[in-house]
Specification:
heterodimer; A: Rossmann fold; six-stranded mixed beta sheet; 33% helix; B: four-stranded antiparallel beta sheet; 9 helices; 8% strand
Chain lengths: 222, 299
């Protein structure tokens, strides 16, 4: 599903990622751990095409992301769901409209949009707030909306960058449970976090990054 | 279809939310097109006047007093056979005097002391359309002055040509003013859209993350620019119409302009449509320029 071969990325000649080799199978739930500045966010950005590697190759669903034309990147992202620490919801749109956004950009019909948004909201337990604006929701609810938006299009891969970073332990636990449910339906999930609680609760394969290097990956014998 | 409706709705929402910048963009486009429109109105009306004067161009052939009745008849026959002549009318000495008295009643005393009628008989010649160019008229008049019995030949070509030259200058002025103000308008609309783009940077980023193509992101901004430009064009037409009607109203009662106000016309329908389309094009171009600059800055 996801393969990285000798991937490196530099910012101002300083390595953010160095010689990363990685393989993630379809349906896996992987935690990307490491302190701040270890390169977790950079690795996720490389996967959804927000950055290009300076060295190496990245295959996502057998597509070489490093060689994708800019005009092809939107189509790669339509197969993915992305969850951010800061939620990134549109403040002037209500919950329904925010979640419907990925369907809207693909030109889904009204009927399909209503059905899929209702399913996604129900899956994260926030369907009763579909008419609310993000500002009226708690942080945990906003993160659920963000997750609903990420899964509304039934993505093959879900990438989450510090999804529990702004949440208290109880809410963080609920979010991880939501991810487990989504993963159980077959979606490949990669969660970048530095929260040990997440690691303990998820109890899945852990990739450890430090200063841009992959220092622990049980599957690769590291 | 649903996607298009969404994009149009986004553009309209944006216009509604950014009222001040929207007003600035519309006002600047309206001002630009109104300035250009003033030149265009002047140009089109003067061109109409010149064209109608050219259609009406006449050559007056004055005859020597001593010309016999036979000589007059021969000369009339000769004129009729000329290719340049479309129509011909004879003005006798008596008729010329009567015309003078009628046209200048206060100056008729000037002729009283002279005893005999000093005004010559003449032929008033309307030229064929093919021979109304400046050069053709000159050549024909030159040939005519050598004919025995012909005194002087007068025609109003020169001042009509001068007026045509003036119209040409106005045309150039309209193009220059239009060009400069259009560039200013594009810049102002581009700045307006750029402000919107920066204000909505987060939204654009989110759209990118959920798989929106460049076209999906850009279309609402292009629509917004086009709508602002078209509204500016409409407003400029309203300003021009108001100004034009006021100008005509001011000209009417004075009676000092030889009834010129009855010659003045506002833009015909298709020119008005072109002005609105020009506004739309200016707005669209402004948005496009802004999107290109924003794309460079954000990449």
């Amino acid at each position: 599903m996801i393969q990285l071969f000798h991937v490196s990325k530099y910012y101002d000649r300083r390595p953010a990622l160095s010689d990363i080799n990685l393989q993630i199978e379809k349906g896996e739930f992987v935690l990307l751990m490491g302190p701040s500045g270890a390169g977790k966010t950079t690795l996720l950005k490389l996967l959804f095409g927000a950055e290009r590697p300076d060295d190496g190759q990245i295959l996502v669903q057998n597509r070489n992301v490093a060689r994708l034309r800019p005009s092809d990147i939107p189509y790669l992202r339509r197969t993915m769901g992305i969850v951010f620490q800061d939620f990134r919801l549109l403040p002037k749109k209500n919950v329904f409209e925010n979640v419907a956004l990925p369907l809207m950009v693909q030109g889904a019909s009204t009927f399909e949009t209503r059905r899929k948004v209702a399913e996604a909201l129900k899956a994260v337990g926030i369907d009763h707030k579909k008419d609310h604006r993000p500002a009226t929701l708690s942080a945990g609810e906003q993160q659920r909306v963000c997750i609903a938006r990420a899964i509304v299009n039934s993505p093959i891969i879900l990438l989450a960058d510090e999804p529990t970073g702004n949440l208290d332990p109880h809410l963080a636990s609920e979010i991880i449970e939501s991810f487990k449910v989504i993963n159980a339906r077959g979606t490949t999930i990669m969660v970048a976090t530095h929260n040990p609680q997440v690691m303990a609760q998820a109890n899945r394969r852990v990739l450890m990054l430090e200063q841009g290097k992959l220092i622990a990956d049980p599957k690769a014998g590291l | 279809m649903r996607r298009l409706a969404y994009l149009v709705k986004e553009a309209m929402t944006n216009i509604r939310l950014n009222r001040t910048t929207t007003l600035v963009a519309v006002a600047s486009t309206a001002f630009t097109l109104a300035c250009f429109g003033v030149f265009l109105l002047l140009y089109l009306n003067l061109r109409g006047v010149v064209s109608s004067l050219q259609d009406d161009i006449k050559v007056v052939v004055y005859l020597h007093d001593g010309l016999s009745a036979q000589g007059l008849s021969d000369f009339q026959q000769r004129l009729r056979s000329e290719r340049e002549v479309a129509a011909l009318s004879y003005v006798s000495k008596e008729q010329a005097l009567a015309d003078f008295r009628e046209q200048f009643p206060s100056e008729s005393h000037l002729l009283q002391g002279l005893g005999e009628n000093p005004l010559p008989a003449s032929f008033v010649v309307t030229l064929s359309p093919r021979f109304r160019s400046s050069e053709a008229v000159k050549q024909w008049v030159k040939r005519l002055t050598t004919v025995p019995g012909v005194g002087q030949v007068q025609y109003s070509r020169d001042w009509i040509e001068n007026l045509a030259t003036l119209v040409g200058f106005i045309e150039l002025g309209a193009i220059a003013v239009g060009g400069i103000l259009s560039a200013a308008s594009v810049t102002i609309i581009a700045s307006t859209i750029r402000l919107t783009l920066y204000a909505r940077q987060n939204e654009i980023e989110i759209l990118r993350m959920v798989g929106a193509t460049g076209a999906f992101i850009k279309v609402p901004f292009l629509l917004e620019g086009a709508v602002l430009g078209a509204v500016g064009g409409l407003l400029s037409l309203a300003i021009l119409r108001g100004g034009f009607d006021l100008f005509k109203l001011q000209l009417g009662p004075t009676g000092r302009f030889l009834g010129i106000e009855s010659w003045l016309n506002f833009f015909p329908g298709h020119v008005s449509l072109w002005i609105i389309m020009a506004g739309l094009a200016l707005g669209f171009t402004g948005s496009l320029v802004s999107l290109i600059q924003f794309g460079r800055a954000s990449s």
